[in-house]
Design a protein that fits this description.
The chain is α/β, with parallel strands linked by helices and about 270 residues long. It contains 7 helices and 10 strands. Strands 6-7-8-3-9-10 form a 6-stranded mixed sheet, with helices on both faces. A 4-stranded antiparallel sheet has the order 2-1-4-5, with helices on one face. β9 and β10 (about 215-220) form a beta hairpin.
Length: about 270
């Protein structure tokens, strides 16, 4: 059986005002099954718009978006989404929020409870299932939103700045657990982030979008599983990313900060 999760953008264009400048123009991108594609770029370059098109919450003005050859025209269960706003139901517990998608999908109570508990464990909230949303910190709420997406086991996972509300240590730990989950399930992941560190840590392929000429400015493939991929390659990738984003940086955009940490030692995981 063919692997599921091939997400294709074919010459996609999008603008939000008929006479305004396009946010995306003639953008083509193919995300292969099991691949983690990270999208970077300054504010206003179309990162979140690209994710919205993939999620089916908006439609392209030009071109097309498809998943496994089927046009994307609306949200669907084969695409799990985590947006910047966690979107949790405040009257429900963390466990109930995670299990809600399974409930609507007709999954039996015993199975959805077990899967929800496992998803909360993955995001290090195994003891918080009974808490209401107002009892959770901002970072905990975001982790519940991530668990809610993971529990669906969809072929495609769409993440829009999903880790930005987390502290550095929690973020690093969560990266490790999620990478294992993605690999085990062969999920296709499209991740939007401002963090160059996060991009190098998680991505198989990095896409830098252009703001002044909407589209792809640079593409970098990370051969992280090759034996020759070492600290020199990591440093080179960081330098390429910095060069690709430097002249686009918005001085008022705190997310566009430079990488100022040295490359890790040989054999170490990228932070």
């Amino acid at each position: 059986m063919n692997a599921r999760g091939e997400l294709v953008f074919d010459r996609v264009g999008k603008r939000f005002h008929p006479t305004g400048a396009p946010v995306l123009r003639a953008l083509s991108l193919r995300c292969r099954p099991g691949e983690v594609v990270v999208v970077l770029g300054p504010s206003g370059c179309g990162k979140s718009t690209l994710l919205g098109l993939a999620a089916g919450t908006m439609a392209p003005d030009e071109g097309s978006v498809s998943l496994d050859g089927v046009p994307v025209r609306a949200p669907g269960p084969e695409r799990a989404v985590v947006f910047q706003d966690h979107g949790l139901f405040p009257w429900s517990t963390a466990h109930e929020n995670v299990a809600i998608g399974l409930r609507f999908a007709g999954v039996g109570k015993a199975e959805r409870d077990a899967r929800a508990e496992a998803a909360l464990e993955t995001v290090q909230l195994g003891d918080a299932g009974s808490k209401l949303v107002h009892e959770l910190s901002g970072g905990m709420r975001q982790r519940v939103a991530i668990a809610r997406a993971l529990v669906l086991e969809a072929p495609v996972l769409l993440l829009d700045e999903a880790f930005s509300a987390l502290d550095a240590r929690t973020r690093r730990d969560l990266h490790d657990h999620l990478e294992q989950a993605w690999t085990r399930r062969s999920q296709t992941v499209l991740l939007v982030t401002h963090s160059l560190e996060e991009a190098v840590r998680l991505g198989h392929r990095l896409i830098v979008l252009e703001r002044n000429a909407p589209g792809i400015r640079k593409e970098i493939i990370l051969e992280r599983h090759a034996p020759h991929f070492d600290r020199h390659d990591i440093g080179r990738v960081r330098a390429e990313l910095e060069a690709a984003t430097r002249d686009q940086d918005d001085p008022d955009d705190a997310g566009a900060a430079r990488l100022d940490q040295p490359p890790p030692r040989v054999g170490a995981r990228v932070p």
